[in-house]
Design brief:
single chain, five-stranded parallel beta sheet, binds 3'-deoxy-guanosine-5'-triphosphate
Length: 331
Amino acid sequence: MRMLMKSNNPNILIVDDKLENLITLERLLEHFDVDLIRASSGKEALAHLLDNDFALVLLDVKMPDMDGYEVAELMRGNSRTKQIPIIFVTAESRGDALIFKGYEAGAVDYLLKPLNASIFRSKVGVFVDLFNQKHALKLKTLEFDQKLAELEELQQQLEETNEQLLMLSTTDGLTSLYNRRKFDDIYLEEWQRASRSQNPISLVMLDIDHFKLYNDTYGHHKGDDCLRTIASALQAMDIRHLDKIARIGGEEFAVILPDTDGDGAMLVAERARLAIENLNIPHETQFNKVTASFGVSSIIPKREITPKFLMKAVDEALYESKKRGRNGSTL
Ligand code: GH3
Ligand code: MG
Ligand code: MG
Ligand code: MG
């Protein structure tokens, strides 16, 4: 507890024009964990007040140049200092009027010299405790703010991770199309929507022709390349945003076409069939290139019909296309 020592202790400013009074106050406050800062004039006191945070000001009333009331008045006019508690310590005892003036000037207390040590200490102690409390709460608030920022950062990360996870769990690794799981979800959703709206829903399913032979001829690696190329061609097709393409099996793809009837779905199937054919990927079949066979099915869902019905129908149509010699579409 020496002057102008920078510590975490609360600062108390003691203002008196007489050195012996300053020393007396310092002695009385010896046992507090506080840093005492001396000022021997009002001007000096104000300079300190603007420079430091204080828990309390012990302010002499009678001083040359600027008296304690003036100091208090100036403190009240400054936002940095107006909250700092002031205890007047004075030899002035000329009655209540002066004490009243002290309170008017913003003092929290008005003590007369000679001071009663224990009363003085307990009064100062209240403000030291409050200041310490305030300081601790401020620190906690800062800590909390920091934690809050960390939490926000973590929440952001969690969201991103969830998005990635969702992406990965719904996407086919080879082609980046929707996978079977996502296809099933979308299909069920669209089926329900069509049930409500009583608009037709259609499915286009395709299976690459003689793909086992392709793998056997060119190798599995080239087979994968071929699947990727076909996936890109399907994605590049001119279809509506609503139409969803998925890889639903090894070399099988499907398109869900909401609000689309059989004729519309057949057009999509033919466009896809041509898109694949026009890739001109060499293959040792009757077409000398990679082709695919298509099944198309369409329905307006009725109460007694389950979503499986349309899946079965599209499967059968695809099988029919295979039977008819491949590279074609069947409704
Ligand atoms: P079909 O014209 O009757 O459809 O004959 P297919 O050979 O295409 O039919 P099949 O079902 O007998 O064979 C499908 C083949 O597709 C089996 C497998 O070698 C190949 N295949 C399935 N998934 C993949 C894959 O992810 N990568 C590669 N390279 N080949 C795959
Ligand atoms: Mg004095
Ligand atoms: Mg197949
Ligand atoms: Mg096949």
